[in-house]
């Protein structure tokens, strides 16, 4: 004999079947039994053990597609392309590839923590033929999530959050990344000051010529940062990190930024400080940046004219509080340079003032060729948390370039190159090494390119030798000049003293 439980289950499933038939029936005869519907649903609800949640495509104002709907669409795209029989392909604005999602009336299942749920893509709307720019006016699309009521807690408390998080991640992965730059204010009136193009720089950490352990250190630092949302919250710090890249021109600072952006899949905001009118404008630009982005200020020393100012400072006063003095200089700079009134304190505020905490998950990168000339206040830890020196090409870095440029991992010419770089300590930037390794015609093989590099390195050595000799000569001449001046001065003083003594004798 059937137990009571089984009886209820059977009744429940029969009612569910009835309800299903009724829904299909309704699609063909939409006006039938409208007044009965509330009673039917109430009766049905008593036995039907499932809960349904709908997520509409357009909710709220401004015809903006709902974030939840888009998140679910992305989340389901990974499963639906494998499981659903009818798929729909879409190009979404800002997405780099086609988004496949299940077609209307399709259903797929999903499992989470041992709980099964059903997702259905649905559409409701009029059959009337009309024209509208907004599909929401005629058709209302939505996703319907169905789950057993005993799983309510798991779904509400964890599953939905999981869907949104995963969906966001897929969305971010699929989106076209952008390179923003700030344009001079006058041409844009009150509109947003960032303009953008698609970011397509091919540099990656694999193509970056650098010691392997240094690369790994930077990569793990970036990964740690991107996964530390809760940690930053716990320690009460805004979720951002500052990097200072310094080194001579052509050592890969800009390339490193591109590699970082590609590694983290972040957007890049290239901030040109000289076109920023004042501190308020700078703050506004910061607010307009999105999360998951790298804000770059290249050649910070040139942007704020700190080097020139610093020279004057050294002449004027030997010691004193660095920050105050530079700030003073920058105030002066305001008068001299009508175009930009950004001050050091404005920039410091930009990096770690209260506004900088808006949005979160941002990396700020400064690059400079002259790290010693920068204000210590600007680059202290906490503002620029990680200082990375980009230096001349070492043998390990050369091997990366040889592999990338020539597909060569071993060659007998490597020994000579190693000797020149390590024993002779010849300094050549990765940019120059790369240029020498680059085949200049179809006929040029790897060996020709490597030999060209060896020649160039030797030339560099001669050049360096010449430079050292020249510098020594200049120094010697300077010393001699100094000595001459000193002797002249001593002679003058001696003469003066004799004259004074003679005067005194006469008076006596
Ligand atoms: N470490 C490197 N690894 C791979 N390629 C490099 C590296 N350094 C330089 N290059 C090559 O040299 C070119 C110039 O490098 P990059 O613009 O990154 O130098 P930089 O340090 O930013 O110079 P600058 O100080 O003048 O801005 C790049 O296009 C890249 O191809
Ligand atoms: Mg650069």
From TrEMBL:
It holds the Pfam family AAA_assoc. It catalyses: ATP + H2O = ADP + phosphate + H(+). One of its GO terms (molecular function) is ATP binding. PROSITE patterns: AAA. Residues 239-394 form the AAA+ ATPase domain. The keyword Magnesium applies. Its cofactor is Mg(2+). SMART domains: AAA (SM00382). GO terms for biological process: response to stress. Residues 321-334 have a biased composition (Basic and acidic residues). InterPro entries: AAA+_ATPase, AAA_N_dom, At3g28540-like_C, ATPase_AAA_core, ATPase_AAA_CS, Mitochondrial_chaperone_BCS1. Coiled coil: none annotated. Residues 309-334, 460-508 are annotated as: Disordered. It comes from the Eukaryota. The keyword ATP-binding applies. Belongs to the AAA ATPase family. BCS1 subfamily. This is AAA-type ATPase N-terminal domain. It comes from Arabidopsis thaliana x Arabidopsis arenosa.
């Amino acid at each position: 004999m059937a137990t009571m439980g089984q009886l209820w289950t059977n009744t429940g499933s029969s009612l569910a079947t009835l309800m299903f038939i009724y829904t299909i029936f309704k699609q063909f005869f939409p006006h039938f039994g409208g007044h009965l519907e509330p009673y039917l649903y109430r009766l049905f609800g008593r036995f039907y053990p499932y809960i349904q949640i709908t997520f509409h495509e357009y909710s709220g104002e401004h015809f903006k597609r709902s974030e939840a709907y888009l998140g679910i669409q992305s989340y389901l795209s990974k499963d639906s392309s494998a499981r659903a029989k009818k798929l729909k392909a879409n190009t979404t604005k800002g997405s780099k590839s086609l988004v496949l999602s299940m077609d209307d009336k399709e259903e797929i299942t999903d499992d989470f923590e041992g709980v099964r749920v059903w997702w259905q893509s649905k559409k409701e709307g009029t059959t009337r033929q009309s024209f509208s720019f907004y599909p929401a006016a005629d058709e209302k699309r939505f996703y319907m999530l169905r789950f057993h009521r005993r799983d309510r807690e798991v779904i509400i408390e964890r599953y939905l959050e999981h869907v949104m998080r995963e969906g966001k991640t897929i969305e971010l992965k699929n989106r076209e990344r952008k390179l923003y730059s700030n344009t001079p204010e006058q041409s844009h009136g009150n509109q947003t000051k960032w303009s953008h193009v698609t970011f397509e720089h091919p540099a990656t950490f694999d193509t970056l010529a650098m010691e392997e352990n240094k690369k790994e250190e930077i990569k793990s630092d970036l990964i740690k940062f991107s996964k530390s949302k809760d940690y930053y919250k716990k320690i009460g710090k805004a979720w951002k990190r500052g990097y200072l890249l310094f080194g001579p021109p052509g050592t890969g600072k800009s390339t490193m930024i591109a590699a970082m952006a590609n590694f983290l899949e972040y957007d890049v905001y290239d901030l040109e400080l000289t076109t920023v009118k004042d501190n308020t404008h700078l703050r506004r630009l910061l607010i307009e940046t999105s999360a998951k982005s790298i804000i770059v200020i290249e050649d910070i020393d040139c942007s704020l004219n700190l080097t020139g100012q610093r020279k004057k400072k050294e002449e004027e006063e030997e010691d004193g509080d660095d920050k105050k003095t530079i700030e003073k200089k920058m105030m002066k700079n305001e008068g001299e340079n009508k175009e930009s009134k950004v001050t050091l304190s404005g920039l410091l505020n930009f990096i770690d003032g209260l506004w900088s905490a808006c949005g979160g998950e941002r990396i700020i990168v400064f690059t400079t060729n002259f790290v010693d000339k920068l204000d210590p206040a600007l680059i202290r830890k906490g503002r620029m948390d990680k200082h990375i020196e980009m230096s001349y090409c070492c043998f390990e870095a050369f091997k990366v370039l040889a592999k990338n440029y020539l597909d060569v991992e071993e060659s007998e010419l490597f020994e000579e190159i190693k000797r020149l770089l390590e024993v002779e300590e010849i300094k050549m930037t990765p940019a120059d090494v790369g240029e020498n390794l680059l085949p200049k015609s179809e006929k040029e093989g790897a060996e020709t390119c490597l030999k060209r590099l060896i020649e160039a390195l030797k030339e560099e050595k001669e050049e360096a030798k010449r430079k050292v000799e020249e510098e020594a000569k200049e120094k010697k001449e300077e010393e001699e000049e100094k000595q001459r001046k000193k002797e002249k001065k001593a002679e003058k003083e001696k003469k003066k003293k004799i004259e004074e003594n003679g005067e005194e004798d006469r008076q006596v």
